[in-house]
Amino acid sequence: MLKTFKIVSICAAVAFATALAFAGEPIKIGVAGAHSGDLASYGLPTLKAAQLIVKDINANGGINGSEIELLIEDEACKPEIATSTATKLVSSGVKVVIGHICSGATKAALPIYRDAKVIAISPSATTPDLTQSGDYPNFYRTIGSDAVQARYVVDFTLHTLKAKKIAVIHDKADYGKGLAEYALKFIKDSGEAKVVLFEGVTQGAPDYSAIVQKIKRFRADAVIFGGYHPEASKIVSRMRQKRLSIPFISDDGVKDDTFIKVAGKYAEGVYATGPADVSQSPIGIEYREKFKQSEGKEPGAFFDNAVTATLALTNAIAKAGSTDPKAVATALHNEEVDTPFGKIKFDDKGDPIGIGFSIYQVQEGKYVQVQ
Amino acid sequence: MLTAKDVRQALLIGLWFMFLTFPLLVIKVNTIEDTIIWRWNNMFIIGGVCFVATLALRSGRRLLVQKKQEDASLKNSRLSSRIRTHLHHKMVYLPLLSLVLLFFILFPTQFSTYQTTIMTTALMYVVLGLGLNIVVGVAGLLDLGYVAFYAVGAYSYALLNLHFGLGFWTVLPVAGLLAALFGVLLGFPVLRLRGDYLAIVTLGFGEIIRMVLENWSEFSHGPSGISNIPRPGLFGLDLSLNQSIIYTYYLMMLMVAFTIFVVNRLQNSRIGRAWFALREDDIACQAMGIDKTRTKLTAFALGAFWAGMAGVFFAAQNTYVSPKSFTFLESAIILCVVVLGGMGSIIGIILGALILILLPEYLRAISDYRMLVFGATLVLMMIFRPQGIISTVRRTYTLKR
Amino acid sequence: MYCYAPMEYFIELTFSGLTRGSIYALIALGYTMVYGIIGLINFAHGEIYMIGAFTALIASSVLTYLGLPLPAILILAALAAIIWSAAYGYTMEKIAYRPLRDAPRLSPLISAIGMSIFLQNYVQLAQTADYLPFPALIPEFDFLEPYAGIVGSTDLVILVVSALGMIGLMLLIKYTRTGKAMRATAQDKKMALLLGINVDRIISITFIIGSGLAALGGVLIASHIGQINLYIGFIAGIKAFTAAVLGGIGSIPGAVLGSYILGLTEAFATGYVSSDYEDVFAFSLLVLILIFRPAGLLGKATIEKV
Fold it and tell me: Do B67 and B178 fall within a single domain?
């Protein structure tokens, strides 16, 4: 108790001293995403990553002498809440935002940030339009877009698995359907294989045997699935139970250990794309360890991307010398920064240069990188 | 005050809840990491809380009964009607109204833009609630898919703007009419249905609209939604974000005022009385020579009309629409606004909307428990005041001799 | 492309439709029983089913930890799920619906919506919002191996157990004293009271039986799909409710029939048209049937007197 008190008072004293010494306004960074509800497991790692890094920076005297203050907003991945949280952040004077987490919420919030000239950097919003449409010059992300990911999935299915008749299934949601549509387009463009089935399944339905029978009926020799692990595990289990052993290739939403646990033995052999493996990178290890120390468990989804986003953003602010959007943007585009993914910067659309995808396969109950 | 019997009862209830919540509250399993956590202290907290709460409730109820007897219950029930007559008195009514009006007019100047956005949303629900009230409260047709019309309005603005560049002011009436058209479309097949059959068909209708928006990508851009919808314009002036939020707020206020005016007029019109008659007894209503088909259809159409307009405001305020915003839960919340506020009562619905939308917003401080409290509030409210916050006063006529 | 035997495909789709139908039926029965007796759409019924699945998950985890054999775990977990779900159903009726028995018609409905929101968040706070893997409690039968492409072990168990449950319920309602009392209460509450039936008790029993069946459904489905989260109740609940209305709400054979029709419609819609619009088909079918039979397939059209 006494110890905590001491630490708190020292911190307070330090903060007070820095405040006096520089008398600078703190740099306000917004952190927006899902921190509650069923998608919290995607949003909370990002929040933690930002908090860990900012704590370090503030302990070292802040950026150019100014402390960083995080303004945390929860929008539960709901677009209509995201717009009001974005307004809240903007009206409290935030100039840079880490977030949002889900593509839908990000899309809803971005026009508000754009009009207020706020820079937003997302660790996980992958809808290609966000950068490719050119509508949001203020948007950056530290994850490859769905188009890039779909390209990986399709190339792997066509060239490594040599599939000729492909069934493309999605979960009718933003992420899954978007990815599936890109996969459909790339397969058609390549002319090397035929898409025999392109359909969405209803999320949360109790049984997917009808769609599995349909895959069987059309004699597909590979299934590409766009969506998250709950639906993927149901479909894969059904396929294997119906003795349908064709390859199942899916996306980042499935590259999750919960998938292996849920699908059990049926998960064996499933392919999924995911961000490149960074378990060997020293920066990645450093923050993973810090996370484990403070939380007592493994960091979850998008943690490395969030670390990257926070590092890139704080680095850009430091290089720019202020939170002036133009200067920060220039720094983001031009200054390379050391991250768990290696040295990265951003192209003129806001997509990261240096962050790619890998293909993983479930082998003996673990995801193993195969390409 | 409390007898041994009360204590014994409370003890039993405490024990029952300890048993009831035992698996879910005490044992926490995580089948991903294969861990089982036992949280025994939760059990005793629940037991204790239930014990104390029961005792408090029992003694509270007894006090109330006693007081009622002392007060001579007649007087008590007169109190609310006396307040009502006072409210109708011009001396009280006008200053009160102008105070409330002043509060709403000054709101954006006194609070942050964020608060203003929330208030705009709450006002949107006032319009939605008043619209649904025509269908549910006045005409007595239970509609669980009201959100469909809201979606029609929002998507009308988004799509008409995207393809034809139509502005907010052009689309506002168009969207209302389109929604009304959909209301008639829904109305036809359900003319013969009553009560709960009507409820499930309207629910299905709401879901169908949402699913079409989700699956028909070529038309609606699918689940990824439509962004970059312009905010309402003001004679081509270039508004900053803050200004345009405040401007939207005032527009919404005008919209609410307009809705209140029209709905009030409607309720006291010929068609309004036909709706009331339909609600009370549809066979008797037919016997009185009221065209049942036309009455039902106008109720659906005029109810949907307001949802369509509110949808345009929704799209303009958020600058983004996606099917995710139009789920069944949304219909349920609008229905809660109507019932909680008091069916058929305009002031009640305004209060209901403000409470239901602002409550979760200000409960954010206890964010984890927010929806838990929300659900419990709905249940408690219905138990203690099933007729809603403000019960309807029907216009009565007294014969003068 | 269509070299696959059409008959075999049809049979496969039929089985997948029947599986879905059985699941819906177990939940729909609870809706229809409660509606038949007190005329309430119990929106929180789906949450009872979800709580059943969670209780079974917790029980099976604890029992696995204690090292019991699989069949014992299956039976005990199902039993725990049924007991606690029934207890929740009973308590819910006492708290949220009994005080509202004479209130305006919409009040209990709002109370039910509130209860549903409350229970979902209660489970979220007490347990988790994430998906949890559910152990495969139902073993795989070797004798089904040749037919694996058509029907799996869990499908068979679901079909058989739900059929047994429904037959049991019908016998109970037809032949026992309680069943007779339930029918009497459904017909006329006041008259039943005059005849010396303890109406409150009968209503409680209805909630207990309905909740128990829903819990049974919860356990079966959870071990079939291998995972649960707190939203499963809502989705299944809406579908089961649709099925109950389709068959004529208040009628027990109607709920079963409606569930199978709904399940088969969805399976055939997916199989022959597209799964993109399977729910659209389901709801359109409902509207169509209700246009021609406004009280559902087996529901009695009541003539109201002024």
Answer: no
Please answer yes or no on whether A104 and B117 come within 8 Å at the CB atom: no
Task: Look up the domain containing B353 and give its range.
Answer: 111-384
Percent of chain A with pLDDT over 70: 93
A25-145+279-355 CATH pick, 3.40.50.2300, 3.40.640.10, 3.90.1750.10, 3.40.190.10: 3.40.50.2300
Residues of B at the A interface, defined by Cβ within 8 angstroms? 31-32, 112-114, 117-118, 121, 214-215, 217, 222-225, 227-228, 240-242, 245, 314, 317-320, 322, 324-325, 364, 367-368
Subunit partners of chain B (3 or more CB pairs within 8 A): A, C
At C237-275, the pLDDT tens digits run 888 888 988 888 888 889 999 999 999 999 998 888 888
Chains in contact with A, counting 3 or more C-beta pairs less than 8 Å apart as contact: B, C
Total domain count, chain B: 2
CA-nearest residue to B330 within chain A is A80
18-57 of B, contacting C, C-beta below 8 A: 19-25, 27-32, 36
Name the residue type at position C200. Answer: D
- State how far residue B285 is from chain C, nearest Cα, in angstroms: 10
Within a domain: B172: yes
Task: Convert the pLDDT of each residue in A235-288 to its tens digit.
Answer: 998 888 888 889 999 988 888 788 888 888 888 889 998 887 777 888 888 888
The fourth-level CATH superfamily of domain A147-277+358-369 is: Response regulator (3.40.50.2300)
CA distance B117 to B245: 7
Domain boundaries, chain C: 21-292
As a whole number of angstroms, the distance between CA A64 and CA B154 comes to 46
pLDDT tens profile A331-355: 989 888 888 888 888 988 888 888 8
How far apart CA B187 and CA B294 sit, in angstroms, is 10
Element (H, E) at B79: helix B73-88
- Does the distance separating the beta carbons of C149 and A216 come in below 8 Å? yes
Q: Answer whether residue B117 is part of any domain.
A: yes
* Closest approach of A187 to chain B, Cα-based (Å): 19
Q: Which of A81, A91, A94 to mutate to test the interface with B (most CBs of B within 10 A)?
A: A91
Contact C129, A40 (CB under 8 A): yes
Contact C91 B31 (CB under 8 A): no
Shortest distance between the Cα of A139 and any Cα of chain C, in A, equals: 29
- Tell me: do B31 and B138 sit in the same domain: no
Q: Is-contact A97 A114, C-beta < 8 A? A: no
C5–chain A Cβ distance below 8 A for any pair:
no
DSSP state of B136: I
**pTM for the full model?**
0.84
CA neighbor of B35 nearest in space, from C122, A268, A267, C127:
C127
Question: Which pLDDT band holds residue C286 (cuts at 50, 70, 90)?
Answer: confident
Same domain assignment for residues B301 and B166: yes
C-alpha dist (Å) from residue B59 to B6, B48, B54: 9, 17, 9
Min Cα distance B1 → chain A (Å) is 44
Tokens 């049974």, located at residue: C216
Cβ-based contacts of C39 with chain B (< 8 Å): 196
Q: Assign a CATH topology to domain C21-292.
A: ABC transporter involved in vitamin B12 uptake, BtuC (1.10.3470)
Cβ-based neighbours of A322, under 8 Å, separated by 6 or more: A328
